[in-house]
Amino acid sequence: MSEPLVTLRDVVKRYDDFTAVKRMNLEIGAGEFVAIMGPSGCGKTTTLRMLAGLEAPTEGEVVIDGRVMNDVPVHERDTPLVWQSLALFPFLNARENVEFGLKMRAVAPGARRKKALEWLDRLGIAEFAERNVETLSGGQRQRVALARSLITEPRLLLLDEPLSALDAHLVIRMQGVLTRLQRELGITFVHVTHSQSEAFAMADRVVIMSRGEIAQVGAPRDIYRAPANRFVAEFVGRNNIIAGTVAPVGPGFGLLRVDTPLGPFDVVADDAPRPPGEAAVFVVGADRVEIGREPRPGAVPCTLISEEFIGSVVTLFLEAPDGTELKVQAQERALAALDAGSGGAFHLSWSPQEAHLLPPGA
Ligand SMILES: Nc1ncnc2c1ncn2[C@@H]1O[C@H](COP(=O)(O)OP(=O)(O)OP(=O)(O)O)[C@@H](O)[C@H]1O
């Protein structure tokens, strides 16, 4: 990571006797795109509001660009926050809304007008400059809000679910707009979202929070393929989580054997001490499971419970004889040959390389 622009050092936020953020430590590099995600109430917005100066930490330090910001009021900061409801001024047109930040900085009318038009153009909405914002569509208003936040050229832009009110096709377009802008401008983005696809599509690093704590920080691929604990494995979804105990005799070759109710499985060993009989949990991505009609050595026999279509990708939910639910994700075309609709037995398998061990006790 580049030099950190933002450092959260042992940050705690309490509301009376409820702790919304528990001793959080995080560094965000200059020019990084970081997404914060997690279930409702996990402390995402509280964290973002502390970065924006809308909340003061109860303990710890929020450092931005080398300066401790705990007590710096919002109007002395350069950390605009864009959120779902936008809070555009309804009595101003698009250009006037965008100009607002420069007006507050006493920039001359001609100069700020020119700059506002440049930003509206950059966001592809120059033609709406003189329109009242109330008459614009959701996506257009979202762009006005972004232009208004970016016109002061902040080093850090905070985004709180900015796309959650938009239609699915607009979300994809706005994701493109946001990532392009972020790369072109080199501004650090911290983006709070409920949406995994949004976070994984845009962010360099994703922070997963649970109950006021960071559960994992990493590149989207690492979070997806190598979850640090059961919470993350379940939260990112489409993972098969299989629990067992370390077998008395291992297969060697860097592999560990885990005895499970589905049978013994070999998985890639990690560095943790793994005495025989100790609990071991591993994760296999649903898209890494092979499914066939024929029994194969080591494959798990299953019956199909349900199917879910998302575009051309299908997820099959199956049940093993002991009641364990397993998921398989594949292209619809690849599954057509299996004739899933006719019922009957399926056999699932995966290679040891696709099985990711969770750390002991995680
Ligand atoms: N002003 C406040 N007073 C008391 N409790 C608060 C206050 N603000 C937030 N909380 C609590 O802190 C916890 C974290 O809230 P926060 O808004 O950060 O969650 P979130 O992860 O952003 O959730 P969501 O996804 O639902 O927006 C919640 O339990 C919330 O009720």
TrEMBL record:
Residue ranges annotated for the ABC transporter domain, each copy included: 6-236
Keyword flag Protein transport: no
Entry keyword set: ATP-binding, Nucleotide-binding, Transport
Annotated signal sequence range: none
GO molecular function terms noted in the UniProt entry: ABC-type transporter activity; ATP binding; ATP hydrolysis activity
GO cellular component terms, A-Z: ATP-binding cassette (ABC) transporter complex
SUPFAM superfamilies hit by this protein: MOP-like, P-loop containing nucleoside triphosphate hydrolases
Keyword Nucleotide-binding found: yes
Annotated Gene3D superfamilies: 2.40.50.100, P-loop containing nucleotide triphosphate hydrolases
Similarity-based family: Belongs to the ABC transporter superfamily.
Name of the protein in question: Spermidine/putrescine transport system ATP-binding protein
Origin species: Albimonas donghaensis
Lineage of source species: Bacteria, Pseudomonadati, Pseudomonadota, Alphaproteobacteria, Rhodobacterales
